[in-house]
Amino acid sequence: MTSLLLEPVQAALATVNDPEIRRPITELGMVSNVDIGGDGLVGVTILLTVSGCPMKDTLTRDVTAAVSSVAGVTSVSVILDVMSTEQRQQLQQTLRGGQVSKEVPFARSDSLTKVLAIASGKGGVGKSSVTVNLALAMAKTGRKVGILDADVYGHSIPAMLGVADERPTQVEDMIMPVPTLGLSVISIGMLKPRRDQVVAWRGPMLDRALVQMLTDVYWGDLDVLLLDLPPGTGDMAISLGQHLPNSEVVVVTTPQAAAAEVAERAGTMASMMHQRVVGVIENMSYLVCPHCGPDHQIDVFGTGGGETVAKTLTTRFGYDVPVLGQIPLDLRLRAGGDSGRPIVLDGLDTPAAEALTAVADGLMSKGRGLAGLQLGLSPAGR
């Protein structure tokens, strides 16, 4: 009986993914021992990366459920232990695919991850709200999605996703992104000792922070990575263009003329860094009248800003920069960001959620064009 159960139990364990790394625990060397008794009692020893692993309860539950489903198993006992330094180093090497040196995985020529940088010319246009809702809409279709909060001074992504007080797990010098709502998330806010601590860095430190979040974080096999950029055309926008030149940029604006003019500069900066601007999102486009319904739209911030930005950038770049969508004002959109439950999770019947979902679907269906990209080609010598 004991020998007959060993193989199906090991197969069941291979279906359990580490909640942070999202790969089978058997591949990661986390299964230390499997002890099977003659009466169907199974004991499994799991090695945690660190003793205070925040996902140990989830791991225990998943292992118990998987092994309990094996025919002939009557009881499951999960014992948690901690990896040695040598085992963590081996895990780190496994995750890096045997590569010793650090590199930006999304800058590799063989990377299949779609990188979308969400940019704006000025603050207050709802760029971070758009980012989290687009990411969640993409994840709901089964895609593996990550968010990198590159807004170092004004990081708000963790709070919008309900993980402002979470801290990432570290394996040697490799950082695990925080898993939440089906996303993998990292922010400078998660790397501070305290939530209320202020970040006061100059240019070189900003570049170093972006590189660390790209190279030291184990992102795994993502389908799409969204970067929430700080507003404007400063150091972080330049660093992004240098380290991820083939990332695609989405410009967020509001309808008012003042915001549209500044948004054009953000798009122009992306083009100067040889990034392709794939479209414009007009946020806070209108307010659905609470008395009359969808047929009556109130233009709180004016009209035409998104269309103006799109037309200007299309003329300036020589390729089509469309308006990807118009997101209406909605109290639930704001409330969802404050509560850590963004609107696309619970409000698919609202105009705002429907518009955000449509934009996400449109972005994922777009193929990669060559217009606006630096190909890295040089003339061959004779």
Could you list some keywords that capture this structure?
about 375 residues, alpha/beta, GMP Synthetase, Chain A, domain 3, Rossmann fold, 2 domains, 9-stranded mixed β-sheet, 3-stranded mixed β-sheet, 14 strands, about 35% helix, elongated
Task: Note down, in words, how this protein is organized.
By secondary structure, the protein is of the alpha/beta class. The chain has two domains: 2-95, GMP Synthetase, Chain A, domain 3; 106-365, Rossmann fold, CATH 3.40.50. The chain is built from 13 helices and 14 strands. It has helices spanning 2-13, 56-68, 85-95, 127-139, 157-160, 188-191, 203-215, 235-243, 257-272, 305-317, 331-339, 343-346, 351-365; strands spanning 31-36, 41-48, 75-82, 114-120, 145-149, 170-171, 174-175, 178-180, 183-187, 224-228, 248-253, 276-289, 293-298, 323-329. The strands form three sheets. Strands 4, 5, 8, 9, 10, 11, 12, 13 and 14 form a nine-stranded mixed sheet that branches. The protein is elongated and about 75 Å long. Mean pLDDT is 86; it is low at 369-373.
